Amino acid sequence: MVINALAPNGGTGEFSYSKNSYFQKESLGVEESKIEEEIEKKLDVKALASASNMTIRIADFGCATGPNTLVNAHKVLEAMKEKYKRQCPNTEAKPEYHVFFNDLPSNDFNTFFTSLPEDRSCFACGVPGSFYNRLFPHSCIHFACSSLALHFLSKSPEVLQEKKSPAWNKGRIHHTGASKEVVDAYANQFAEDVGKFLDARAMELVPGGMLVIVMPGVPHGMPYSDVINGMLFDCMGSILIDLSKEGVFDESKIDSFNFPYYASSPEEMRKVVERNGRFNIERMELTNPVPWLKNIEKVIPDWIIHVRVVMEAIFSRHFGNEVTHQMFQRLTKHLLDKVGILETKYRDKIQLLAVLQKKE
């Protein structure tokens, strides 16, 4: 499978993910209590441990370089330990925990491994590879999660570059504000990719195992141009067009680039899960990922850096480092010019939580 997306910036420098993932941490924090609640209500830790020689295996798909994945893993571990204590209050035997951290081979696993705490209460290892493929043996994982990663498609829809196609996405870098044919092409690619993701996880998870997905979402029927991230893509596209008109590069490079990113509505995700047929949907909802945010104007510069560390590699591969640098340099001003509109959008429920359980 062609993987157009690349891992976030590695290392520990100014534009590294390890130094610029605060917004992601806060967004994931919104879902913590809900995930713990689902583990408490739905996950039979005692039965899972007993059936696997007292070893619980957890997989994080899309771990990046930390530190957020470590916080998430710790929360899940603590919730599972508490559930086991309640199920087995009079036993001294306790399960051991093995956590697998997965990301693309281009991910900076070295930086990730150096961030692992020495006193961790689990065994840990890295697993390079695309989560759209199988990564583990049959029926060996008890709990799996993917946090802010599944919105990156395995590839851009190929039809978007066919000049004779109604879905030719000329002059745009995303489906934001594009024709229905372009939006449909992205939606179809998302459904195909998530279908493969679920097929792989259905093979890897034990019966009764849990899969948690957190990713950008969109209310059903809302145009993506009305979503704050859609405005971000519009600004990026406008800046690239300006740079091409200034003679920095040929405009045809814009026509041949479509950012492999798709935010799903709960309805779309539900259809893909039901088509797969091997999971029960325990929870599916949208939430506001930044309830703490009071003034978006003040955080725009930091937000752009956070966006840059995640997306820079994909833009640089196509447009080159200098064009990409100039785009991000101009992006802050473009968004500050739209701050009045952005102020009305950041309270929207645009984060999707899906809690699925493998059927027995």
TrEMBL record:
GO molecular function annotation: metal ion binding; methyltransferase activity
InterPro entries: MeTrfase_7, MeTrfase_capping, SAM-dependent_MTases_sf
UniProt keyword terms in alphabetical order: Magnesium, Metal-binding, Methyltransferase, Transferase
Keyword match Methyltransferase: yes
GO biological process terms held by the UniProt record: methylation
Name recorded for this polypeptide: Farnesoic acid carboxyl-O-methyltransferase-like
Organism: Vigna radiata var. radiata (Mung bean)
